[in-house]
Amino acid sequence: MYIREVARHVPIDQYQAREDSDEILSDPDALDAIEAGLAELNRGDVVTLGAIRNELAERRRSR
To answer: Lesser CB count within 10 Å: N end or C end of the chain?
Structure first.
């Protein structure tokens, strides 16, 4: 029986992205947090970037 080994070159950024994905997918708490965030988005429970900027500006002024 003849077995041929094959190597595949993958750019480092793609390899690291895959490692990150594997780490997240193996973490039940991370998956729960992602699902909760998606549910919030679906309900429209979001905060705009403008609202966050306004709140930060108000906090800085009140210091």
So the answer is: N
